[in-house]
Fold this protein.
Amino acid sequence: MYEHSKTQTTPKDIYSSIRHRHYKLTLEETSAMLLLYTRAYVTHVFLSVLFDVHDSAICRYFARIRPIIETIFDLPTKNSDLSEEEILKLVVDATEQRTERRKNGCGYSGKKKAHTVKTQIVVDHRGTIRHVSKSVPGNVHDKKLFDQSGVILPDKAKGDLGYLGTNLAIPFKSSKLHPLTQRQKDCNTRHSKRRIIVEHVFASLKAFRILADRFRGSLAHYHQYFLIVCGLRNLART
């Protein structure tokens, strides 16, 4: 998988160039350890026994390998390689994941009734992830996250009601005084069928337990793990 690196310098060269400490594991072994960690979200103690290293060294191995893997799984941030028809079929949505409770209360999601971290993705009609936003505290609204992400989508790109106020196509919203007409209900049904692909993508991402269980690690590293899992999923579809 290392042939996907953007530069001529190979990941093995980058890995070997860091000589601040003596690293027992090779690049391949460290990559396998990281993939096992993201897929099963086992503890560092389990990894230390399995790979015969001290559990305190696991964080150093991960800090060394994460940037390398992230550059290999280069997720596109522009839609220039898509046709006009494909751009119109893009779907955007955000997902939340529970985290450890924070002292200042920042990140408490009223929707999930828990402390969460939120990330937005854009997928095409084939389910390929085309854009990943920065991960933000769970109390940030979907519209604000969309505005902060800087992604530019056409009017016919699909979103849910969380993107009310943006240029995205969203379903009709009913109220007690203004129930939906049959035509509006039919439009909402067609809308749901077209944007269900992003829910399938979230389900496949959360097959990696690091994105499904309560996140135990530092939030400073969360976005890197999210990008790595997205890259793995895109790679599996190629």
User: Anything to note?
Assistant: The CA atoms of residues 26 and 219 lie 27 Å apart.
